[in-house]
UniProtKB/TrEMBL annotation:
Protein name: WD40-like Beta Propeller Repeat
Keywords carried by this UniProt record: Signal
Transmembrane segments: none
Recorded superkingdom: Bacteria
A Pfam family of this chain: PD40
Origin species: Kaistella chaponensis
Claim: Signal is one of the keywords in the record: yes
Signal peptide: 1-21
Length: 189
């Protein structure tokens, strides 16, 4: 029985290496982040930059903050991350605006400059996204200067969706409809 399991493993690896050697879409794979918790990374319109949510104490990000990574730099490291958000509160859901010069994201910083407490973990070990009523939505330039505040209401202002010429977001707990650039949508989170 042991020999047959071994034989099956060898056969599987042989077939896998042949099948995947034909793969043309996954070439030049490069690791972009090193350490910390990195999430929700999205490309700029020209695909030369990423915006992402980062918690990494080694770079001073003790609470989710929005960072920019220039993909044109060769052999980039964590030190190449440039913070876009102001380092206060918690941030999430960043996207490039269609002009490639501004980033849309949500933050709690105006309510409290400290990082809000995380909720207790689920007993089943599954991921739990904290919902903070203090989130508001901002647009900042690539140097981190906030150029516009889009929301100023109580409730969970978050879950941003961006399409090259349109901004669409929903608010919780009430269903609200936002129309930007001709998009109309409604729903509950």
């Amino acid at each position: 029985m042991i020999a047959s399991k071994f034989t099956l493993k060898i056969a599987f690896l042989s077939v896998s290496s042949f099948v995947f050697s034909q793969e043309v879409s996954l070439k030049n794979i490069q690791k972009l982040t090193f350490g910390g918790d990195n999430a929700e990374a999205y490309f700029s319109p020209d695909s030369k930059k990423l915006t992402m949510q980062v918690t990494n104490p080694s770079i001073g990000a003790h609470c989710d903050q929005i960072y920019l990574l220039d993909l044109t730099k060769k052999n980039g490291t964590t030190k190449d991350l440039e913070r876009i958000s102001n380092g206060e509160g918690r941030t999430t859901c960043s996207f490039f605006m269609p002009d490639g010069k501004h980033i849309l994201y949500a933050s709690t910083f105006e309510s409290n400059k400290e990082c809000p407490a995380k909720p207790k973990p689920r007993t089943d070990g599954k991921y739990l996204w904290p919902v903070y009523a203090e989130f508001d939505i901002y647009i900042a330039d690539l140097n981190g200067k906030i150029t516009k505040k889009l929301t100023d209401s109580p409730g969970y202002d978050n879950r941003l969706f961006l399409r090259m010429e349109n901004i669409l977001f929903s608010l919780h707990p009430e269903v609200e409809i936002w129309n930007f650039g001709g998009w109309i949508s409604m729903g509950k989170i």
